[in-house]
Amino acid sequence: MAVSSSSWDLPLVAVCQVTSTPDKQQNFQACAELVREAARLGACLAFLPEAFDFIARDPAETLHLSEPLGGKLLGEYTQLARECGLWLSLGGFHERGQDWEQTQKIYNCHVLLNSKGSVVATYRKTHLCDVELPGQGPMRESNSTMPGPGLESPVSTPAGKIGLAICYDMRFPELSLALAQAGAEILTYPSAFGSVTGPAHWEVLLRARAIETQCYVVAAAQCGRHHEKRASYGHSMVVDPWGTVVARCSEGPGLCLARIDLSYLRQLRQHLPVFQHRRPDIYGSLGHPPS
C-alpha cells in the first residue's frame, strides 16, 4: 500500500523487547532505558512485554516478588510515564489483588498508564497457560495465578482505541473478535513465548488475529535466557490490519517503531466489510467443546 505523504503526522508507537530476570530493579532500569529512548524518538505510546517486572525461577519466588498495583514498582512506572510524557502499556504485572490474603495467588495484570502516569485500564489475563509440550518445560500458570473475571472495554489512546490481552489469549480468536466488535483498532498481545511454540505459532497467530479483526496488532515480547530454567522466543512485532508485519525487533533486547494509520484501517474495513458479513445467528451452537 502507498504510504501517504503525511505519514510523519501519524502516531508513532514503540514496541520494547527485554530479557526479564528475577532482579526487579535491574529489569526496571532496562525497561526505563527503552521507554526513554521511545520518548526521544517521538513515540506517543510504548508497549512492554508480559512479565516486564520479573521472571522468577518458580511459583514460590513469583509470589514472593509480586506486589499490589499501589506498590513501589508501579509508582516508579507512574513517574516514568510522567517524566517521558508518553503512554505505557505494561504488558503483564504480577499483581497481588484484593483477594491476596485469602487466595495467596496473584493476577497477571496488563496495566495501561496515560502520559500523566494515571492507570486508565487494567486487564487481568483470562486464559492461563497450563500446557505440557515436548521439548519445552511444562507451564502451569495456574499454580500461582488466578484467571481474570472478564474483558476490558477498548481504551482511547493517542494512537487509537486499544484492546488489551496477554500472550496465551492470542490463541482464542473469540477474545480478539469481541474486542474488535467493541471498537478496538489496535489489539495488543504482550508475551513471553517459548522456544518451541514461538517458531511454529507466534507470527502466524498474530497475523491471523490482525487479518480477521482488521486491527493493528502490537506484540511486545520477552527474549533470551531469563535464568537457568527459562528462555523466550522474542520477535516482537507490529502487524497492520492487512496482515503485513510493519515492524519487528531484532534478536536481543531493543525496540522497534511503527506508525498507526487509522485512515488506512477504516479504508480497509470499507473495502472488505467482514464485520457486516458475520452471521452470529449461526455460530452459537458450535461454541461447545467436542464430545
UniProtKB/TrEMBL annotation:
Highest taxon of the lineage: Eukaryota
Keyword annotations of the record: Hydrolase
Region Disordered: start-end pairs: 134-154
Keyword Hydrolase found: yes
Entry EC no(s): 3.5.1.128
GO MF term (any one): deaminated glutathione amidase activity
Record SUPFAM superfamilies: Carbon-nitrogen hydrolase
Glycosyltransferase recorded as keyword: no
Residue ranges annotated for the CN hydrolase domain, each copy included: 10-262
PROSITE patterns: CN_HYDROLASE, UPF0012
Listed InterPro entries: C-N_Hydrolase, C-N_Hydrolase_sf, Nit1/2_C-N_Hydrolase, UPF0012_CS
Annotated signal peptide: none
Family of this protein: Belongs to the carbon-nitrogen hydrolase superfamily. NIT1/NIT2 family.
PANTHER family: DEAMINATED GLUTATHIONE AMIDASE, NITRILASE-RELATED
Protein name: Deaminated glutathione amidase
Organism: Pteropus alecto
